[in-house]
């Protein structure tokens, strides 16, 4: 992957963070893809929003200071994609990948709900959308999803992916990490809501993984597998009412700095 990352700013929350800004003390410098003001994007992405997002991506990768030659090159890098409300951005990025891939997802939610109407893309159904529409996906591995949420899915939908409890992957006694048996180059998608709320706050209900579980998993999969792209979501929402947004945004900012160190250093 290119040593360059993109901050996809839907909600404005990244304007309160510094992990991508050298002039604010970060060791890293990322490009900003500004998607604020694009209507039809909160939790769901309608057709007009898709067109606008794709147009803005096209303009972004043509900037002189952005080192991507095409959309496939852009997809094969690191992306921070705002809160979990915008996790469907992973599906749009995967539409740009033009080789067979294995999808590995860390998420407290399976994100395999059928669309509520039509074939609209949503944050709660993007994994299913990839399975049903992406010709290059070969196998999907979801780590940390709530078993009750999985059980509510149709059996046929459940069978399309492999699900792993945290205990299947993280050995609490030895610290060992068992990676999924992927068959192809890996695209890694991380929703920080897989992390316990006492370590990090997102705007969705959360799992029980530890901060270090996620960063260590990221380093190991980058070391042991061919990884073609990474995205990370799970920021607070700017208008979130169940926490001190300023304080919890600082925590998310620190996590983002930390995971960049695991990816690039």
Counted by DSSP, the helix tally is 9
- By CATH, the superfamily comes out as Ureohydrolase domain
Q: Tell me the Rg in angstroms.
A: 17 Å
- The first-to-last residue Cα distance is 13 Å
Spell the H/E element sequence. EEEHHEHEEHEHHEHEHEH
Low-confidence stretches: none
* CA-based shape: globular
The average pLDDT value, as a whole number, equals 96
Helix content: 25-40%
Could you give a short account of the major beta sheet? 8 strands, parallel
Domains (count): 1
> Strand order within the widest sheet?
2-1-4-10-9-5-7-8
CATH architecture annotation: 3-Layer(aba) Sandwich
Q: What is the strand content?
A: 15-25%
Number of strands: 10
- At CATH level 3, the topology is Arginase, Chain A
CATH structural class: Alpha Beta
Secondary-structure-derived class: alpha/beta
Write a structural description.
With 265 residues, the chain is of the alpha/beta class. It has one domain: Ureohydrolase domain (Arginase, Chain A). It is 31% helix and 17% strand. The strands form two sheets. An eight-stranded parallel β-sheet has the order 2-1-4-10-9-5-7-8, sandwiched between helices. The protein has a two-stranded antiparallel sheet with strand order 3-6. α8 runs parallel beside α9. The protein is globular, with a radius of gyration of 17 Å.
